[in-house]
Amino acid sequence: MVRERFPRVYPAYGRGMKRSPFAPGFWRSPLRGPWLTSVLGVVLLGGITVLFVTGLVSYAAYNPDLSPVNDKTPDKGILGFYLFSWPTDPHWLYRLNQGVHVTLGITLIPVLLAKLWSVVPRLFTLPPARSLAHALERISLLLLVGGALFEFVTGVLNVQLDYIFPGSFYPLHFYGAWVFFAAFLAHVALKTPMALRNLRHMRESREEKDDLVSPDPAEPTVSRRGALWFVGGGSLLLFATSVGQNFDGLRWTALLAPHGPADPGDGPNGFQINKTAAYAGIRPADTTDEAWRLVVTGRTGTVRLSRAELLQLPLHSAALPIACVEGWSTSDQWWRGVRLRDLAALVGYDDSPDVLVESLQQRGAFRRAALRANQVADPRSLLALFVNGEELSPDHGHPARVIVPAAPGVLNTKWVARMTFGDL
Amino acid sequence: MRLRPPLGSPLQILLLACSFALAGYAGVRLLDGDWFEIALWFVGAAVLHDLVLLPLYAAADRALGAAAGRHVRYVRVPAGLSALLFLVWFPLITGRVEERYSSGTGLSPDGFLARWLLITAVLFGASAALFVLRLRRAAKERPPTVH
Lengths: 424, 147
Fold this sequence. Notes:
The structure holds two protein chains of two kinds.
Chain A: H1 34-61, H2 93-119, H3 132-159, H4 169-201, H5 224-240, H6 277-280, E1 294-298, E2 301-305, H7 307-312, E3 315-320, E4 333-339, H8 340-346, E5 355-359, E6 368-371, H9 373-377, E7 382-387, E8 390-391, E9 401-403, E10 416-421
Parallel strand pairs in A: 1-10
Antiparallel strand pairs in A: 1-2, 3-4, 4-7, 5-6, 5-10, 7-8, 7-9
Helix pairs in contact in A: 1-2, 1-4, 2-3, 2-5, 3-4
Chain B: H1 10-30, H2 35-68, H3 73-93, H4 98-105, H5 112-141
Helix pairs in contact in B: 3-5
């Protein structure tokens, strides 16, 4: 287990110097070195790239350029250059994307911490900058490290509903990601060639010459390989206790994830809830058969429908999941209701237009949500009245809710009160 | 002649300038709001990690090493993994979001602490079992001669 020790030349520092983190002799772990840092760096290069791409895709899934009500970052400018019409196929697209984004992010936390630990001596460099290029690189590293931690912290807090960060999650996490990614790109361009060279030419046990290698290493208590197993074990543990919140059958394994290890109820309406009726401020009096009317507006005017009248329209079924931006989802539920395109036809649209859906809910960032024409046109897009063979429960949107294949959960508006069809 | 600081690689300067331009474009949008507090979170995250969290866990590990000697890994691994779980899930484990969590999701906020403690117990239990197993195997493999 103990690695072979090589005779080293000890720099002539005084004893007092070792007390300062600016002294190379202060950092004594024999684990630090270019090999460990390169392994962790390459894992993060792949992992963070996936996080960034799935993050961008998630933003596109909201169709932010369709309507201001869908867009929590309207000042995005060129940062929205890639936006596209979000498809409805495959119907698990958002579920997969967001499951990967959040679960992978949680899994990478130990790798990020280990990477930061492996390079911490470089924070304490004297002189602080050797050249202009070096000074700029160190400023860039502040954006890199601050940005990475900012993104992970806001993400981890948001999925636990701990909204202590300074502002709305969407702009913080979105713009923060771009600040981070700018620094990440520069870091990757500057460091990847060296990291790959390190991995190709360097065996773990070979002597390394690098500023990360301690000139005065302590006796090793674990090998580098052992340390990597420890980091990997941490990742595996986090993964194993959170990935289950994406599958109804595996939910019991999600021991510490926010939407595990149990469902909120039993029976057909027992599956996971994003926001309950009480939390959203739904007044039961507004949802009774007598009080509630669906107001549908379009080319030919306005139609008001009671629930009984809706039940007279052709009813269709679709098996679709609920998939939340917070990285949890349900397996496919069996929804039954009126096709959105049939409602559009009711107010004079034979070809499906966009629609603005408004909810009875008094609280929540997505009380109103817009759906694009391709989403309205999909035969599986429903104004659902039933789920899994029973009437919707209040927490799942009774009297009626929208369900659209592949759409983020918050666009599947619950407690629908008004639908305005037409080009947005 | 004035003394000027060396420039370093012009390619690197150019690359970093591009990076700063993009970071600046996103940064002004990020800071559009309570800019001071947002900047504080951004920089504070790095400072807290590098100057508080990292020294703390390094010191804890050193103390552990001093106490447990060469068998440190049987304590370090379960303790480290348990601490990692707490670091990630502390809002749920400590119950600081209890009210919003239960009223929002309809799920019980109780049980996160118990499950974290149970996982911790299993980790330490497995580590102890492994320790005993290896100790016994080492005792068996040791030649029976006395010196």
